[in-house]
Amino acid sequence: MFDILSLIPGKKKKTHNGWYSFNAICCTHNGGHRTDTRNRGGLRIDGNNWVMHCFNCNYSCSFTLGKQLTGKTKQLLSWCGYDYQQIQKWNLESLKHKDILDLANDNQVIQKIEFVKKRLPVAEELDIENPAHKFYVDYLNRRMIDINNYEFYVTPTEKGRNKDRVIIPYTYKGKIVGHTNRYLDNKVPKYINIDQQSGYVFNIDKQKHDWQVCIVTEGIFDALCIDGVALMHNDISELQARSLATLNRRIIVVPDRDEPGLKLIDKALEFGYSISLPNWEQNVKDVNDAVMKYGRLPTLLSILQNATTSKIKVEMQRRKIAKGI
Measured between alpha carbons, how far is residue 256 from residues 23, 101, 235, 320 in Å? Predict the structure, then answer.
């Protein structure tokens, strides 16, 4: 496993109580503290396991062999100059040392991620060749949604609001586990979610095995227009975090540009995710708005280029956006 003492830059001195002291590199990244020049960083090593604490900015993190690297530990390693691929390699190496109890616990977690199979309402699968479906096709095209990438259903023969809806299934491991109705009649509520089970992450089924990044949005259409996933609210539950962890890749959260969306940032940082707040125009409120205004590829590039785990950078951009709300 990696030697944390050799990874931290600069000189280290072992104290009489078994701690190593060094100039902590976290201070300039953690809330604007002054650069440490007085060896305020402390490292206690116990075999393969270790604990780090900064007595200047109070940043703490730790590592236990057999466990996943925490978000704060990943941050420390990135500040030491190590890239995402190397950190992920160390994470996987640690997990190889799991004992039987850990594996049993993992199996319990996997069980919790399962969802109950549900039925869709009686509906017609969206067909671009069907003249009766043109209304729905035109709407999805305006929203820059690739109709060929997802299965949509409609009910053009029904009465009332149900005539003007697109049914979007929730799938998990190839089975239907719920759905949402997106109404197109300009009335509220626009969405009515049916059978949204706790911990479900929309579009997680569509994430490819060879992708290195997963972009997490709040809304379903935000996810669909960039092949990302959606939380379907402005929070991240523990079960959703576990589902995202099964992807084993970098997670980039792109919150909506409103007050509830900006609150999502703190939760995402707790999980060690990257945050992306691109410098979009003020009238662009979410990912789907950006795709409709700038196009899919420019939007994706702006998300990737602005992704960061730096609290200082995120806070500066959040304050800038908040002034325009």
Answer: 38, 40, 11, 14
Q: How far apart are CA 72 and CA 21, in angstroms?
A: 19
Residue pLDDT, tens place only, 161-216 = 999 999 999 999 999 999 999 999 999 999 999 888 989 999 999 999 889 999 99
Q: Judge whether 236 and 302 are in contact, CB under 8 Å.
A: no
Given a contact cutoff of 8 angstroms between Cβ atoms, the answer to whether 162 and 120 are in contact is: no
Q: Give the whole-angstrom CA distance, residue 57 versus residue 308.
A: 20
CA angle 244, 82, 278 (to 5 degrees): 55
CA distances 306 to 56, 98, 190, 281, Å, are 29, 35, 31, 15
The architecture in CATH of the region 124-194 reads Alpha-Beta Complex (3.90)
**Which class does domain 204-323 fall in?**
alpha beta
Report CA-CA distances (Å) from 202 to 32, 205, 228, 309.
Answer: 36, 8, 9, 24
User: For the chain, what are the domain ranges?
Assistant: 4-98, 124-194, 204-323
Helix H or strand E encompassing 262: helix 259-270
